[in-house]
Design a protein that fits this description.
The chain is an all-beta fold. It contains no helices and eleven strands. Strands 2, 4, 5, 6, 9, 10 and 11 form a seven-stranded mixed sheet that branches. The chain is globular and about 40 Å long.
């Protein structure tokens, strides 16, 4: 089992940047594929990005491609999300997710979730 804790959210103006972090504890972090999702009020949880266990495969939602970058540091048991050129429509609660094998776009297949961190982008 793995426990996930997100941090780094906050209020930022449109065009600004934020870096979210997800700290993992428990079993070996390198055994997990990781993903980031977000959920705005009244909307379904949506895929943002994911990375395979090896880090060799990365996927991004079209809405964030070219602006967001996922990183993982197995030595520090962390996965980060660098968010640049933020837009008001990026406003949401951002969640880190982990799974032993799955790194696709469906949130229902991830076994472990953090509590989320709020990102608010003002226009």
């Amino acid at each position: 089992q793995v426990q996930l804790v997100e941090s780094g959210g906050g209020l930022v103006q449109a065009g600004g940047s934020l870096r979210l972090s997800c700290a993992a504890s428990g079993r070996t972090f390198s055994s997990y594929a990781m993903g980031w999702f977000r959920q705005a009020p009244g909307k379904l949880r949506e895929f943002v990005t994911s990375m395979s266990r090896s880090g060799g495969t990365v996927d991004y939602a079209d809405s964030v491609k070219g602006r967001f970058t996922i990183y993982r540091d197995d030595a520090k048991n962390t996965v980060s999300l660098q968010m640049n050129s933020l837009k008001p429509e990026d406003t949401a609660r951002y969640y880190c997710a982990a799974d032993p094998t799955y790194y696709g776009r469906s949130p229902g297949y991830y076994d472990y979730w953090g509590q989320g961190t709020q990102v608010t982008v003002s226009s």
